[in-house]
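During the no-cost extension, the postdoctoral fellow (Dr. R.K.) reprocessed legacy sequence entries with the updated structure-token encoder. One reprocessed record is reproduced below for audit purposes.
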Amino acid sequence: MPNFSYEDSFSNGSNAIVVGVDEVGYGSIAGPVVAAAVYIPDRNVECIPNIKDSKLLTPKKRDALYKELLSHTVCGTGLASIDEIAEHNILVASHMAMRRALENLNLQRIDLVLVDGSRELKSQWPSKSIINGDELSISIAAASIVAKVTRDNMMRELHDQYPEYHWNKNCGYGTAAHILALKQHGATPLHRKTFAPVKKCIISTKNQDK
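Re-encoded structure tokens follow.
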């Protein structure tokens, strides 16, 4: 279970403002990548013991915690678009989304950013990357929940534009049903055309048209 050990070890007992950051949508084949940044000012809030990696929560529990986090923590979100993912790459785009999430925090200062993953986040704030951080740091786990619910809601709205791809269920990830729909209907402007499953579909469609 995630806890405040990392936050405490890096703050050295001071009143340092330590923020957790995580992204969602890295491996998706459609839609943006979304990041969230969370600072927990009050550790006595009732929902804190229930926070864990968003992937380990049911949708119902995740949505409930999301609402609690918005009420009792300082949150910021950011995204990188499909075009930005194509222009750079998914890693660079993910870090762009993380920096935007941090910039959207309503904080006068940030002393340290805890980042989920192994890659250094280059930004104006000092940071520490933690492998499996969403399982270890409660601030990162909280960020994973906010990012996940934010992006899921976004993909459900986009589903209304392209219902054949079932984004309300797969959130843009390459499930069997999504890949089948991709083969049947082709790629939309919201598909990541540099990603292998989408690229393969586009090439296959072009070959069929010859």
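The first helix runs from residue 5 to 11. The longest strand covers residues 18-24. The remaining legacy entries will be reprocessed before the final report is submitted.
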